[in-house]
Every structure is written in C-alpha cells, then in structure tokens.
Amino acid sequence: MLLPIVASAESVEIDGIYYNLVNKIKSAEVTNNPNKYTGVVTIPESVTYNDVTYHVTSIGSSAFSGCRNLTNITIPNSVTTIGEYAFAGCNGLKSISIPNSMTSIGIYAFYYCSNLKSITIPNSVTSIGEYAFDKCNSLTEVHISDLAAWCNIKFDTNSNPLSYAHHLYMNGEEVIDLVIPNSVTNIREAAFAGCSSLMTISIPNSVTNIEHGAFASCSGIKSITIPNSVTSIWSGVFAYCSGLTSIIIPNSVTFIGNYTFAYCSSLTNITIPNSLTSISSELFRDCSGLTNITIPNSVTFIENLAFMNCSGLKSITIPNSVTSIDYYAFGYCSGLTTVIIPNSVTNIADRAFSDCPELTDVYCNAEVVPSTAPNAFQNSYIDYATLHVPSTSIEAYKSVEPWKNFKNIVVYDPSGIQDITLDKDSNAPVYDLNGRRLTEPAKGINIIGGKKAIVQ
Q1: Distance (Å, rounded) from C-alpha 241 to C-alpha 270?
Q2: Banded model confidence at residue 17, pLDDT cuts 50, 70, 90
C-alpha cells in the first residue's frame, strides 16, 4: 500500500484522494486535490492513517470543483453530506448516483456540470441547497424510488434538478400520471417544479398543505382537483402551468398565496371558493385565456396585479363584499368591456383598471364616490366610455377625477326591475345575475344596459 502523503497541515493524501481527518471522532472528509482529480475516482468507506481507521463521512466544500477531466465518481454509503460547490464545473461527469446514506446536498454542489444527464437521489436525502444543479443544461433524468420521501425534501432556491431534467423516474419508470401517496400530508416547496412531462396529478385526502411552487412549470398538466383536506395553497404552486385548463378548489382552502396561477395561459374558467377573503397579489396574472371568473361574496380585498393582463376577460362583476381594489388589479385586461363596481368599494388604487382600451361601460353602485387614484383608468379611453352611477350621486361623480373624465355619465338604478322592449339590433350589454356576460338575453331576470329586466 502506498504511504500516505501529508499535503498540508490540514489534509493528507491516501491512494490518490485527499482527506481532512478529524481524530476525535475518527472521521474523514474528502477534500480538494491541488492537482485536480481526473478519470475514475472511487471513494472508500474508510481509510487508515498512522494505523488509525477513519470513516469517510462527507465530501467537503469544493472538493472536486473544477475537475473537468473527472469522468466517474463512486460515493460510498458512509457519506452523509456533500458540501457546497463540491462538484462545480465537473464537465466530464455524465451521471451520478447518490448513496442511501446521504442526507444533504450543499449549495451549488453540481453547479455547471454541463454534461450531467442523469442523477439518482435516494430516500435518505432531506435537503438540497440553493442552485445545487444550476446550469446543468444537459440533465434529462432524475431517478428516485419513493414519492413520499421526495415530497418531503426541503428544496432551497432553484435547487430541484427537475427544473432542468423535466423528467422524473421512479424505480426506472417515468412518472407521467403522478399519484401522491396517502402517507403524504405536506407537499414541500418546489417538489415537482419543472416536471413538464407530468400529465395528471392525484392528490390524496391526507394532504393539508401545498407549499410554494410545488407544481410550478408543470406545463403538461391539463386539470387538477384539490381535495377537501387542503387548507393552504402557497405562492406560485401552479404558476407557469401553461397547459392547465381547469382546476377545482374546495371551500376547505382558506389561503391561496401570491401568483399561484400566474401565467397559466390556457386556464379558461375557475371558481374561487367562498372561504377566501382576498384575491392575492398576481394570483391570475397573465392568465390570457381566462374568460370567466366568479368572485365570491367572502372576498373583501382584490390585491395588486391580481388579474393583470387577463386579456380574455370581457366583463367583471365585483361582489358587494369588496372594499378595496389595489393597484393594477385589472391592468392591461385588453379585452375588458364592462365593469360592475359595488356600493361596498371605498378605495380604488393606482391604475387599477389602466390599459383596458376596450372598456365601454363602468357601473359604479357606490353612492359615496370611492377614493380613487386619478390614474385608475389611465390609457383605458374613458373619454369614449359611459359611467353608470346612482341618481343621488351623479353630480358628485361629475366633479372629481377620474370619474368626471368619462364621455357619458348617466343614472343607473341597480335595484330596479323593469319591463323593457328588446331590440335585437341593440348593442346594450347583457348579463345574468352572477355578472356573466350573455350573447343574448335569457328567459328570466337579466341585467340589460345596466338595469334589471324580466325577459319572458
């Protein structure tokens, strides 16, 4: 056996591998080679130095960093941690299998391993540090053996390898139809983020919480049903799910975080549960396919950018529970023609309805003019639109910004029901009592031209 060489005061070389030795606990940490590791490296479970045996328990920070000619690494079952930048820039690595003893992978551990195509992550791993697989542009496969364990990994910022690989394999078979096990109660942050090959998701009644970005960018998913057990859906959970067309959210959900459905461009219809009290910031931002939305009477606050750039929305009825509409809440809704604002609204913030160039009718039921930012309707051409207000308040609206800038300000009686003569050629907007725009009047009570009307 080759004699150990002392490389520095802190490390020794044994059989071509350098270690930091901790005599007190008889452990060894693989450390960097001043001349860089090349070819095939097999790390042993233990090493002997000065007749003392040390168990190899970790791969230290930057241990293999910049080893461009390292082609294969075997990590023993004794290793429990991989340090930060441990394999950064190892361009020669094409696959790596993490042993079942591993519990944590450090930040930037595999950063810029540009030829890495496959990685196996065992059930023992509980945390992966931020940007651990950043710039692994060739990664196409992530292999696991237990979905419940995978759901429990703590992923830090951009640390899930699926964001590059997009394909998840369990016991050798690609996961297309994801069935979360009944043992899972919490789906951790970014657990399946970027797994675009997923087509369906089944979430069991054991799950109560879905954390930030858990299914973000899963572009292959078409529809989702959230079980009644779930109470919280955190921010960005389904953001960028561009194939998502429908989702059912139960009344058990009392919290939906910011931008949860942002950029879901195929989403056409959604019913918000009446357990929510606010529409979170950017919740439906850039949902350009959304044509219908029902806001429940439980909602009191529509937060900033909530429906920004929802170009498919033609009309919106805000329920009588809402008191405040935040900035850009409906900004850039380029197809929006009609807005019904209830008596309960007291505050409309900057640009809440800005850049809605097709806006033709705004119905504001508030008898006391809401505190409204002067630019609330900026670039919405209200000088060509009609404002409908209660008769008792028409003069008040005519005297303040931005309301006085509407082309027409007319009396609107939201409570009255009247018989009317229908003109088939009339362009008056027609809605049902839930505020949904109709292509033509339906039998029963309609809202036509801002007034309730009985259609025989």
Answers
A1: 14
A2: very high
What would the CATH number be for the domain defined by 1-172?
Answer: 3.80.10.10
Cross-strand bridge partners of residue 95? 118
**Residue 53 amino acid letter:** T
Cis peptide before 99 (omega within 30 of 0): no
**Above 60 in pLDDT, residue 420?**
no
Most distant pair of Cα atoms in the chain: their distance: 103
Amino acid at 431: Y
pLDDT digits 0-9 by tens, 352-364: 999 999 999 999 9
pLDDT single digits (tens) 173-197: 999 999 999 999 999 999 999 999 9
Domain map (residue ranges) of the chain: 1-172, 415-456
Distance set, CA 398 to CA 153, 184, 391, 402, 408 (Å): 59, 58, 12, 9, 10
Q: Is 76 left (phi over 0), alpha (psi -120 to 50) or beta?
A: beta
Give pLDDT, residue 453. Answer: 62
pLDDT at res. 454: 46
